Amino acid sequence: MGEIIVAPATATGGALAVVRLSGEGSIELCDSLFRGRKSLLEAASHTLHFGILTDGDEPVDEVVVALFRAPHSYTGEESVEISCHGSAYIQSRLLELAIRHGARLATAGEFTQRAFLNGRLDLSQAEAVGDLIAAESAASHTMALRQLRGHFSRALDMLRDELLRLSALLELELDFSEEDVEFADREAIARTMEEIEKELKRLEESFRLGNALRQGVPVAIIGRPNAGKSTLLNRLTGEERALVSEIAGTTRDTIEETIRIDGISFRFIDTAGLHKTSDRLEQMGIERTLSAIEQARVVLHLTDATDPTAAEIPLLRPDQTLLRVINKCDLIAQPAEGGENHLAGSEIAANPQSEAQEMPKGATRPIAISAKSGAGVDQLRQMLRATIDTSELERGSVIVNNSRHLEALIHARESLQAALRALAANLPTDLLAEELRQVAHHLGTITGTITSDEILHSIFSSFCIGK
Question: Of all residues in the chain, what percent are helix, strand and coil, respectively (each to 5)?
């Protein structure tokens, strides 16, 4: 890890670019190419220096160099960040010069990997760096920033320390097994283990919210052909994203688009109309619609206020929310001014069978909109936002948003449940202590206390070069 690595840290196309170097000798390398008021070798850490970057006697660019001396840098190593003009040619020359003078091009995520290996970040914090870069909403940004600042790590460390303390007490008894000494009160151990299990379960359950906020809440727009699904998608996104026509069955494939409502990303999926058909292409579209419903967290069921045929309401899982929306309200009675935008008589008039249909569990009262004119769409946005309860996030609770972390938490809770069963069955102390150490082991894989080269490669290979 003593090699000097170099890579661009900014995307191409901007007015300015940053090229990073890290590793022992980075400052000396940069000093050999830099012409400023004084030598970089004499400069203090965390200082900026303006000068000319040269290739021998040939000037390459005017730059600003930022120095970071070990261990007070992102990687924990001696590091340099060179701000140059954004020209692809200039960046290429700069990289070429650094490599010619002893550096090598960094691999994907190698700067952050070095930060982890040098103890500047734990593994969950390192993953949060990638999440922070990829954050596309206020909620995903908040989660990533909290994880980067160690909120999740500290919570796990507290649980892990308590588990290791209990395990140590049990193992201490083994050293005095011939004297029949009990250092740990079994009832107190059981209470502590049950409290830890509750917290592990809460963290597991938080993944549903965390993953939705990180990836965007999947919303499937479904309904009969020509109900206005594509028109609604276009209205929500403000773009002509989906093809719209008066011909039923125009949409034969799913179309995805993301919008943000009050800091939350919603991934809308416009689907083919649900109906019976012998057309093979339409049937393929309907199959994809059913798949989209299966994956959705929110199902937006759109019906046509002018169509007397009652649309079938799909069967949903308990963890899915159904929003019932009646479109084309501009073609019938308008909602009363200042009143709630709910259809009662209008919906029944347009859909005589709808009153007889039992409202599915988790469904909202239907609202009236006009996707074409925009009437009622703001209320629909409010209803969509209300489907996501972010109170835990707003209170600062730890939210899990990474599937690797979820898997480790599941394994940890399974081991803890095995330990509780062992305790209840009065099994030997050494078996109980080993089960507790297994719980701590699984939690340690999240922060990187316990890790492997395979896990590290899987995580950091997904990072961009230069991070």
Answer: 45, 20, 35
